[in-house]
Design brief:
single chain
Amino acid sequence: MKHIQWFPGHMTKAMRMMQADASLCDGAIYVLDARCPASSFNPKLKEVFANKPVLYVLNKSDLAEGTDEYIKILRDMGAFAVKLNATQSGCKRALVEGAAKIVAEKRERAQAKGYERTFRFMVLGVPNTGKSTVINLLSGSRRTVTGDKAGVTKGKQWIRLEGFELLDTPGTMPPAFENQTFARRLAYVGSINDDILDLDDITLALLSDMAEKYPERLKERYGISEIASPLEMLDAVCARRGFVLRGGEYDYERAYKAVIDDFRKGRLGRVCLDCPDDMLGLKY
């Protein structure tokens, strides 16, 4: 499989911007994808807030399984963490309470001196984890541009809310992927621009990983009852979905896109691509 690497020029600019703006913020809201909470952690972003409090938000929990276990792992590490489905307004309270918790000591010190202050948080994460959707949830309106494609936010945006301010930032990858397994999982969930990927390789790898971890999902969706090679599973997808060209050959292009779309839209069920051991070696 082709080595995955994606760090376009705007990400270099974004990292410099975040480092410069960190001094203006009291803490960070770090948005992770609950389907791959270890893979979607960029250590370089954590370094920006090495000495300030961070709230980890495991977003898209409606598409994930086992999220509570990963929340517990983060809390056992001493981190603040909440799970979220940012498209649901009912999740706002947990997010507000989490943000308030990480600056509670600063608020108490300010109140002891007799004044109230507005706290500032930088919202960060790798692309397509839902950072802008989190901000829209907090603001109660569509204050930022969102999308299901990596790289929607290109520049910084300050969002003024009641009691605090948020700085939306572009999704930023590590300059280099040392762990290609993590890179592959990010490709599955749409955090890496599809235009730079070989979707045939990604789809075959996804089928292989799903067969190992969730074989029953492939049977339910595509009728794959016997796990064979990835290409044979792709043939089964084409047969089930009717992706056939003139002459009887399978239309693999349609199959690639269908499998990826099924996965990202949750049609293959709730998943978690990472395992607890993946998180234990990271410094949250």
